[in-house]
Amino acid sequence: MCSTLHNQSIDRYKGGSKERAQEKLSQGECMDDSDRAVLDGTACAWCAQALSSTSLARGVESTYCSQSCAEEGRLRRGGIYASTRVRAQVFALEGGVCQQCGIDAHALFLRISSLQPAERLNALCNANWRLPRSRPALERLLQLPKEGDFWQADHILAVAEGGGDCGLDNFQTLCVPCHKLDTEKLRSRIRLNGGPTISSANTNSQDIRSVFLKAKSSTHTKRRRRSPD
Predict the structure, then answer these.
(1) Phi and psi at residue 43, to the nearest 5°
(2) Backbone angles phi and psi of 174, in degrees to 5
(3) How far is CA 12 from the centre of its chain?
(4) What does the pLDDT profile of the chain (229 residues) look like in tens digits?
(5) 3-class SS of residue 204
(6) Burial of residue 166, with CB atoms counted within 10 A of its CB: 0-12 exposed, 13-18 middle, 19 or more buried
(7) Is the dihedral of CA 23, 162, 170, 129 positive or negative?
């Protein structure tokens, strides 16, 4: 009976073996020996395989049975550091280079960070970078640029389309402009399929040349208002 319940309910759990065991315990569901071993710390938190005698030695703290389980567990078990772990692993593979347009977004971040705030707008213009639409976001980018402003660890198969529980092979590096373009395409697909809409907050960007055009237009309007009747 225990085995039957386990097989019927396993699909609704997220994370690894430890999360499954913890939820079973909290819900008062039937637990098997592997669940108890995981909670006792004698089995892998990801796959529930028994830990080796070396891992269980006095003074040794082990969570996973192998390096592969450690990588998968740290990536997919979630928690407050999940996104940081994903970015670190994707960066180790691709170095912050956009897999669509080929720009080295990490190198651009380092270059922009090394400049004075007054020099950054011109440097971004030369790189044909797309800027945030809102003035506060643009000001923050120029005053305090962060690496997340330049590249993202993107789901190849979007979470909204079933890619939320995939491993590292479902991630790629995208520069922020390409990531926003992909998000727009995803929103369009979801609208066509009648699914829930995705916030457009992440697509709020503009071509850098529009900044100068708007500034010029604003100045021209002010001058017209000041002219005598």
Answers:
(1) -135, 155
(2) -130, 135
(3) 23
(4) 444 333 333 333 456 888 888 888 888 888 899 889 988 889 998 898 998 887 787 777 778 888 778 767 766 666 544 677 788 889 999 999 999 999 999 999 999 999 999 999 999 999 999 988 889 999 999 999 999 999 999 989 887 787 766 778 889 999 999 999 999 998 898 888 875 555 444 444 444 444 444 544 554 444 445 444 4
(5) coil
(6) middle
(7) negative
* Bridge partners, 131 (sequence order): 206
Residues 6+ apart with CB under 8 A from 131: 124, 138, 141, 205, 206, 207, 208, 211
Longest distance between any two alpha carbons in the chain, whole Å: 91
- Tell me how far apart the alpha carbons of residues 114 and 175 are, in angstroms, rounded to a whole number: 19
Q: Which residue has the tokens 């670190």?
A: 88
CA distance 125 to 127: 5
Q: Is the dihedral of CA 128, 130, 136, 137 positive or negative?
A: negative
